[in-house]
Target: Transporter
Amino acid sequence: MIKEKDTRHQGSICTNESKLNHQWYHQLKYLFVGILFGIIFVKAEIISWFRIQEMFRLQSFHMYGVIGSAVLTGMISVWIIKKFKIKTIYGEPISIVDKKFNKGQIYGGLIFGFGWAITGACPGPLFAQIGTGAFAVIITLLSAVFGTWVYGYFRDKMPH
Model:
């Protein structure tokens, strides 16, 4: 049986959720960062269906280089946060909780990878793809939202 603490960390609840209450316009920073990332994704061709297909067909290093540099940046960032006990810009502590490995992560990763290969889109760049005029991606977005809802609905009945 899974303990309550383990279930919380597997869920969508953020363990570093801020206790501060901000005005609504403080959330605009996320909109601007999202727009900036969208522009970067488009310019770097990260959202290109053709680049994604090249990656899955092992025809190009482009996407592997981007993903690898993102993983390396993330590893270094987490190491720095842990080593120097970095806090948020509002002075709140950041806690990074270790997660246990389970076989469901392999199944989920395979399903995610198959979906990515078939649709040419992962959840991050969906909005950037739609913003470039690839309106067929709206079906992928709706499917992702529906899949997330289905998982949330049946989560308690699934073996974790």
